[in-house]
Structures are given as C-alpha cells and as structure tokens.
Amino acid sequence: MRKTLFLSISAIITVFFIVFLINDFSRELVEENYNTAIKIGNHEIVVEVVDDEEERSRGLGWRKDLPEDSGMLFVFEISAQYSFWMKDMRFPIDIIWINENKEIVAISENIIPETYPAAFSPSEPVKYVLEVNAGWANKNNIKEGDFIEL
Questions:
Q1: Which residues, in sequence order, are bridge partners of residue 71?
Q2: Which residues of the chain have pLDDT under 50?
Q3: How far apart are alpha carbons 71 and 11 in whole angstroms?
Q4: Prediction pTM value
Q5: DSSP state, 52?
Q6: Helix residue ranges, H only, the chain
Q7: What pLDDT, in 10s, does the model give residues 65-107?
Q8: For the stretch 21-49, what's the b/e string if a residue is b when 16 or more beta carbons lie within 10 angstroms of its beta carbon?
C-alpha cells in the first residue's frame, strides 16, 4: 500500500514538473519570436517569426486578436506562390506578400474570417508573408514596391 502511494505521488510530481518545463519553454519561444522587429518604410512593427511547417499551418488561427503594430512573419525556404486562408481565424487581417528581395509585391487587404474556405495568394512568387491587423497597411501607407528591413 505504501509503495503504491509513493509511486502514485512520484508520478504526479513528475507529470507536474514536465508540464511546467514544457509550458516555460513554450513561453520562452513565443516571447523570443515576438521580440523581432522589422521595418517597412518609416514604420517599425514587432513580429512573431514562423519558419517551420507546424507553426505556419497554425498561423494566427484561434487567437483572439493581434496587438497593435505587431504581426506574424511567415518565412519560407524557397520562393513560391503560397496560398493562405482564414481557417480558425477570429479577426480580419491584411496579408502583405514579400519577395526574396524583401520587396512588397502585393497586399491583400481586410480579409475577414468569413471568407474561409477561399484561399488567397500573390500573382508572383514570395519568400515572406506578413499578416497584420486589417487596415494596418492602408493606415501606414504601405504599398507595393516598398521594401522591408529584417
């Protein structure tokens, strides 16, 4: 009986310790990713960089909002005409399409969650995609031909 109780308590403590470590590690990753700033024209924006398939497929889905003057920067290994959709999105966004030379080649503005399952893609290959709150590009006079600084 004592041995079973001891093993049960040890197992519970181990599980809590593992959960704590995973949670702390995840928080560090998110904080690190959000500490990356990029510049578009005269505007600086803090972005979360997503550069692996799992993060890219999750994107901003299920989040309640996006802080002002922040965004999510998708980084791809190769340039291509990637498609994005509004699956699991809860708020509208602008999608800024950026080629390998860091030049904005297209902007898809005010895309609302209700457009799902429609997909959005640029007319030419891109290596970076920046998602920001809807209206951000217009409010900050961001346009095709502008360059970003990473």
A1: 47, 132
A2: 7, 11, 14-32
A3: 40
A4: 0.76
A5: S
A6: 2-34, 53-58, 136-139
A7: 999 999 999 999 999 999 999 999 999 999 999 999 999 999 9
A8: eeeeeeeeeeeebbeeebebeebebebbb
